[in-house]
Amino acid sequence: MPPAVGCDETGKSGTAPMRHGNDQSDGGAAAADQNLGIESGIDKMTPAVTSNDSINLDGNGEHKVACDNNQRISKEIEDLRAELDEDVKQLGYCEANQKPRAELALKVKDMQGLRKQSEEMQLNNDGMRKQNDLLQAKSDSMVKQNKDLQAKNDDLVKKNEELRTNVDRMGKRNEELQAKKTNMCKWNLEMQLNNDGMRKQNDLLQAKSDGMAKQNKELQAKNDDLVKENDELRTNIEKMGKWNGELQAKNGSLTQWNQELQAKNDGLKKQNEELQAKNDGLTKKIEELQAKNVSLVKQNEDLHANNDCMCKWNGKLQTKNCALTKRN
C-alpha cells in the first residue's frame, strides 16, 4: 500500500503547484513517517492478532462467531478503504499536509493489520471449517452406527422375546412333564402295592400248595390202603351177587350224594380258575406251581370223593358182611 501511495503522490506532484525539491524531502520524510507509523501500527495490531490466534474455537457456535468476526473485520476494512479513498480525494496528496498524511499512514497501517488479522481469521476459519467437516463426518458415522446399533438392538429384542416365548413354552412343558411324573410315581406306588399283594397271595398259594401236596401224599397212602381193602371187598362182592342188587338200589342215593359233591367240586374248580386268572401275572414258577396245584386239587378231590364213596360203601358192605356172616 505505501508504494502505491508514493506513485500517486508522484503523479499528483506534477499537477500540484508546489516545489519539487521540497516535495522529495517532504516525500522522504513522509515515507519515513509512514514506515514508522506502519511499524507502530503493526506493533499495536499484533496483540490483537495473537489474542485471536490463542482462541480455541470448537463447535458450530464458535465457528459462527469466527465467521461473524471475519465479516465484521472485512466490513471495517471496506469502510477504511472508502474513508482512505475519500481522504485521498480530499487531500489531493498534498505534500504540505503532513498531518493528514500521517493519519493516512496510520489508517494504512491499521488496514494492513486488519488485513493480516483477516487472513489469520480466514486461516482459522478454514481450519474450523475443516474441523467442522470432520465433526460432520464423525456425526454421520455416529448416526449410521447408531442406526446399526438400533437395528441390532431391535434384533436382540426380537430374539429376547422369542427366547422368552420358548422359555414360557418349556416351563409349561416342564410343568406337564412334572405332572406326568407325579402321576407315574403314584401309579408306580399303586403297582408296587398290587405287586406286594400278589406276592403275599402267591406265598399263601404256595403254602396251600405245599399243604395240598402233603395232604395228597396222605390221601395217596390212604387210597393205597383202600385199594387193598377194595380188592378184598371186591372179592366179597363177587360172592354176594344178590346182596349187590340191594346195594345197587342204595347206589342211587350215593349217586345223588356224588352229584352234590360234584357240584361242590365245580364250585371249587370255578374258584380255582379265578385264582388262576389272578395268578397269571406272576412268575413262571408260580404258574407251574399253580398248574401242579390245579392238577393236585383235582386229583385230590377225585380221590377224596372216591375215598368217601368207598368208605361208605365199605362200611355198608362191612355191616352186611357181618350180618351175612352171622346168618351163615
**What is the molecular shape?**
rod-shaped
**Helical percent range?**
over 70%
N/C terminus separation: 193 Å
How many distinct beta strands? 0
Low-confidence stretches: 1-59
Strand proportion: under 5%
Task: Give a short summary of the structure.
With 328 residues, the chain is mostly helical. It has helices at 2-13, 20-54, 59-91, 98-239, 241-278, 284-327.
Features:
328 residues; mainly alpha; 2 domains; 6 helices; 0% strand; disordered N terminus; coiled coil
Question: What do you see in this structure?
Answer:
Residues 63-306 form a coiled coil. Residues 48-57 have a biased composition (Polar residues). The chain is mainly alpha-helical. The protein folds into two domains: 2-140, no CATH class; 197-327, no CATH class. The protein is 93% helix and 0% strand. The protein contains six helices and no strands. The chain has helices at residues 2-13, 20-54, 59-91, 98-239, 241-278, 284-327. Residues 1-59 have low confidence and may be disordered.
Give the topology, please.
Elements: H1 2-13, H2 20-54, H3 59-91, H4 98-239, H5 241-278, H6 284-327
Helix pairs in contact: 1-2, 2-4, 3-4, 4-5, 4-6, 5-6
Region (Disordered): 1-62
Coiled coil: 63-306
Biased composition (Polar residues): 48-57
